[in-house]
Amino acid sequence: MKLEIRNKAKRIGALLPALLALIPILGRAQVGVVNGLTQEKICAAGETFESYIRLKNNGPQEETVKIYQTDYLFNYDGKSYYDAPGKVGRSNAAWILPGAKQISLAGFAQTDVRFTCKVPANPVLNGTYWSIIMVEVVPPAPQGRKGASAKEINVGISQVMRYGVQVVTHIGDTGARKIKFVGSEFVVNEVQKTLQVDVENTGDRWLRPLSYVELYDDSGALAGKIEGERWRIYPGTSARFKFDLGKVPQGKYKALVVLDNQDSFVFGAQYAMAIDGVVKSAAPAVKKAPVPASKTGTAAAVKGAPAKAKSVSPAKASGAK
After folding, report:
1. What is the CATH number of domain 30-139+156-171?
2. Which runs of E-coded beta strand occur in 139-290?
3. Distance of CA 10 to the CA centre of its chain
4. What is the mean pLDDT of the chain?
5. Do residues 133 and 165 touch, judged by C-beta distance below 8 A?
6. Residue 67 to residues 31, 83, 118, 162, Cα–Cα distance (Å)
7. Taking Cα atoms as reference points, which of 296, 126, 303, 289 lies closest to residue 203?
8. What is the pLDDT of residue 140?
9. Does residue 1 have a pLDDT over 50?
10. Angstrom distance (rounded) from CA 76 to CA 82
11. Across-strand partners of 213?
12. Between residues 270 and 11, which one has the greater pLDDT?
């Protein structure tokens, strides 16, 4: 038994130097993008433009950086997809040519990775097209312990850091702006009361609306206005907007959710909800209004046909997924 314990200790001791050697690797990935992770350009069909991604090495060691392209999609449930370039219908990856596929960046150095975007001279193009240029720091090859025998086990852990720079092209001011309200849920538990609204961009141009909810009591008087999140929504993608109702007193309300795109397009949906003092259940009835109202529209301007109320199970009411 003692011999077995000594053998195990010997094996652990042989691994310890290799594990300690990994600590500097975990602290690497010092390269960053310093001129933003989104580049947006309004252009015309047939136009060519150039831009760049500025990289900075914040550490003393030379780093190798790989540059490649992907498409990009996401859903309101939080999932993101980085498919091969050109698979998404509105991908502009084929229009973009990075100036390098791999570079070496000296310690504390800075450089620009230039790229060219050539928009096809196709009159059918309209709305928004986008893709991603990935900037990935290549981890160093694992090195064995000096003087280690061939029988010793080498253990390696490496950290891969990458940045996705979204390159967005809008064809003039073209493309329909449309939003579809696809779902809602009133999440209630011991510490929060949150109205969640899921929306999909069913148009041709990206949207980045400001969001807020106006609460009206039984008399029709405005009981409060709560600002929500702001998300960028590409065509064919969806996002979840959340509104914190934690300070709203108990009672019955009509909630008007407004997504204001800060142009001539405003979208709205109306909900009926009851907030009780026990804070244990909720079942909002939803009225949808996917058709944009005028910028100066009021609650009456965004009325829609009533939809079936969505009930909330006890599991969801407690915040479980």
Report:
1. 2.60.40.10
2. 161-171, 179-188, 193-201, 210-216, 222-227, 238-244, 251-260, 266-275, 285-287
3. 48
4. 80
5. yes
6. 13, 15, 19, 10
7. 126
8. 83
9. no
10. 16
11. 226, 257
12. 270
In angstroms, rounded to a whole number, what is the distance separating the alpha carbons of residues 281 and 278?
Answer: 8
Q: Do domains 30-139+156-171 and 179-313 have the same CATH topology?
A: yes
Question: In sequence order, what are the residues at sequence separation of 6 or more whose Cβ sits closer than 8 angstroms to the Cβ of residue 245?
Answer: 193, 194, 195, 226, 275
Residues forming beta bridges with residue 257, ordered by sequence position: 213, 269
Q: Which of 2, 116, 30 is nearest to 69 (CA)?
A: 116
Q: Which two tokens stand for residue 121?
A: 């001279």
Q: Which residue, 291, 197, 281, is CA-closest to 244?
A: 197
Pairing verdict, β 38-43 and 48-57: unpaired
Helices (H), the chain: 2-20, 23-26, 314-317
- Tens of pLDDT along 109-144? 999 999 999 999 999 999 999 999 999 999 987 666
Write down the residue that tokens 């795109």 correspond to. 261
The residue type at 31:
V
- CATH class in words for 179-313: mainly beta
| Domains in the chain: boundaries | 30-139+156-171, 179-313
Q: Which residues contact 156 (CB under 8 A, 6 or more apart)?
A: 18, 22, 142
pLDDT at 212 over 80: yes
Our CA dihedral for 269, 270, 275, 279, rounded to 10 degrees, sits at -30
Query: Looking at 83-92, 143-152, 166-175, 284-293, which range is the least confident one?
Result: 284-293
